[in-house]
Write a structure and sequence with these properties.
Layout lengths: L4 E7 L11 H12 L2 E7 L30 E3 L1 H32 L9 H32 L3 E3 L10
Length: 166
């Protein structure tokens, strides 16, 4: 079982480093810069598991003669299969969004790209976007995972007699 951990930064800023050049303020500013990013972690919920090769349906609970209440044949639930496919479609899109935002965030933080006072605002904005994207990812995947947990994997097959003249 794989657990995917998403790190989103949350920045903390102090109003340090006034124009008066106070050393205590500058030291506090340096400490604030070293503590700027506190990672917020989001762990993906469990993914719905697809039908495995060789997986068999559950064994019928009743012994003896079959009753109308017990199913004789089972099929993999198509609704559960849709949730598996939905998970597989959403993960690459969310990973692409996260990777592109992380790349832009790293470029914004790099002093090689720019050394302007406005860069701090961009880094703050991107930190907020990364947090929002992590929350969005968590909400989407949790809704799929919760729905899969509430959906049975196997359902009784509609075993009807073949119709000779239909």
């Amino acid at each position: 079982m794989w657990i995917r951990v998403i790190h989103c930064g949350r920045s903390r800023h102090s109003a340090a480093g006034s124009e008066a050049g106070n050393e205590a303020d500058n030291e506090a500013g340096n400490e604030a810069d070293s503590e700027r990013e506190e990672p917020v972690m989001f762990v993906d919920p469990p993914a719905p598991q697809p039908l495995q090769p060789g997986e068999t349906p559950p064994v019928s609970g009743g012994l003896g003669l079959p009753s109308p209440d017990t199913a004789m044949a089972w099929e993999f639930n198509p609704d559960y299969q849709r949730l598996v496919m939905m998970w597989r479609q959403v993960i690459p899109v969310l990973d692409t969004l996260t990777a592109s935002l992380d790349k832009a965030y790293q470029l914004a933080r790099s002093r090689d790209v720019w050394d302007a006072p406005v860069s701090g605002r961009y880094v703050e904005d991107m930190t907020a976007w990364r947090t929002r994207l992590g929350l969005y990812r968590q909400a989407i995947l949790t809704s799929i995972s919760d729905q899969a947990a509430d959906t049975p994997r196997w359902i009784p097959a509609a075993a009807g007699a073949p119709h000779a003249f239909s």
